[in-house]
């Protein structure tokens, strides 16, 4: 992973074998970024996507492997109870035999196959925090 900060925006290149969320959190810790939003593209080899099932109150996970085009990742990073947390969604395209497929959802983790290019924009003028929603057990922005 390598990155540069230009005009308060952090441009991050994540390399083969690295996990995207882990590297984003690493940059935030190193640069003392408490909250940020991010977006990006790339090529990945593994993804763990989740869908929240309200009736069950839990996430179902789908794992996909292979040559995965990361069409888009978008999300945010915010502190909750003293640690940085992420909330990200992603869309991937891939081939299964001769068919082109897509998979998308809440992104738990994804491993880079050849590169990922991420733009991380730190929040300026304050910090956006997270709080747990007791009904769903998921985290939401907290402006208090």
Task: Provide a compact summary of the structure.
This protein has one helix spanning 20-30, and strands at 2-6, 9-15, 36-53, 58-80, 83-96, 99-122, 129-132, 139-142. With 144 residues, it is mainly beta.
Describe the structure.
This protein is mostly beta strands and about 140 residues long. Helices cover about 10% and strands about 70% of the residues. It contains 1 helix and 8 strands. Strands 1, 2, 3, 4, 5 and 6 form a 6-stranded antiparallel sheet that branches. Strands 7-8 form a two-stranded antiparallel sheet. Strand 3 and strand 4 (about 60-80) form a beta hairpin. It starts with a strand and ends with a strand. About 25% of the residues are buried. The mean pLDDT is about 95.
Instruction: Please tally the β strands and state the result.
Output: 8
Radius of gyration: 16 Å
Q: What portion of residues is helical?
A: under 10%
Low-confidence stretches: none
List the helices and strands and how they pair.
Layout (H helix, E strand, L loop, with lengths): L1 E5 L2 E7 L4 H11 L5 E18 L4 E23 L2 E14 L2 E24 L6 E4 L6 E4 L2
Antiparallel strand pairs: 1-2, 2-6, 3-4, 3-6, 4-5, 5-6, 7-8
């Amino acid at each position: 992973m390598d990155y540069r900060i230009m005009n308060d925006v952090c441009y991050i290149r994540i390399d083969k074998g690295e996990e995207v969320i882990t590297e984003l959190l690493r940059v935030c810790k190193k640069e003392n970024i408490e909250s940020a939003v991010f977006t990006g593209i790339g090529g990945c080899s593994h993804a763990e996507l989740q869908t929240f099932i309200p009736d069950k109150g839990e996430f179902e996970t789908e794992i996909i492997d292979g040559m995965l085009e990361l069409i888009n990742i978008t999300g945010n990073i915010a502190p909750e109870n003293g640690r940085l947390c992420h909330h990200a969604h992603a869309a991937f395209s891939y081939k299964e035999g001769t068919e082109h497929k897509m998979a998308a959802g809440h992104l738990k983790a994804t491993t880079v196959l050849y590169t990922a290019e991420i733009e991380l924009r730190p929040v300026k003028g304050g910090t956006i925090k997270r709080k747990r929603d007791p009904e769903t057990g998921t985290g939401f922005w907290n402006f208090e």
